[in-house]
Amino acid sequence: MELNTKKITADMLNAAKTVLKKHWKETKPYAEQQFKTFAQNIQLIASLKLRGEITEEKAKLHLNIQRNSIQIVLLTIEGLGLLAVEEAINAAIDVVKGTVNTAIGWNLL
């Protein structure tokens, strides 16, 4: 199963940009890398599922670790608070949730 990781990344970035518009210039390079990695991890999980090498529970744990990583990186940017970062991450995930969950067949996001 092949997911369009470039589109997933772009959609997530656009959603985060809307929330973080005031700090987007400083945030953009970090967000680009973090959401690209998140999308690649979603693709990895999809591949592992097809091969029967990952459970839904482990997949969710893996994505939770990735989500925490995004949070940590974005919180290092001066001026961004926890609530703004959480809102940006939630918006980014919400925008791809349906596509990802349908493609993988699990409610991961």
Can you tell me about this structure?
With 109 residues, the chain is an all-alpha fold. It has one domain (5-104). 78% of the residues lie in helices and 0% in strands. The chain contains four helices and no strands. It has helices at 5-19, 24-50, 56-75, 82-104. α1 (5-19) packs antiparallel against α2, α1 (5-19) runs antiparallel to α4 and α3 runs antiparallel to α4 (82-104). It is elongated and about 45 Å long.
How is the topology of this model organized?
Elements (H helix, E strand, L loop, with lengths): L4 H15 L4 H27 L5 H20 L6 H23 L5
Order of helices and strands: HHHH
Flag low-confidence runs.
none
Report the sheet with the most strands, covering strand number, pairing sense and barrel closure. none
Termini separation (Å)? 17 Å
Spatial extent as radius of gyration: 14 Å
- Average pLDDT metric: 96
Helix count equals: 4
Helix content: over 70%
Q: What class, by secondary structure content?
A: mainly alpha
Strand content: under 5%
Number of strands: 0
Please state the overall shape, judged from the principal axes of the Cα atoms: elongated
Counted up, domains total 1
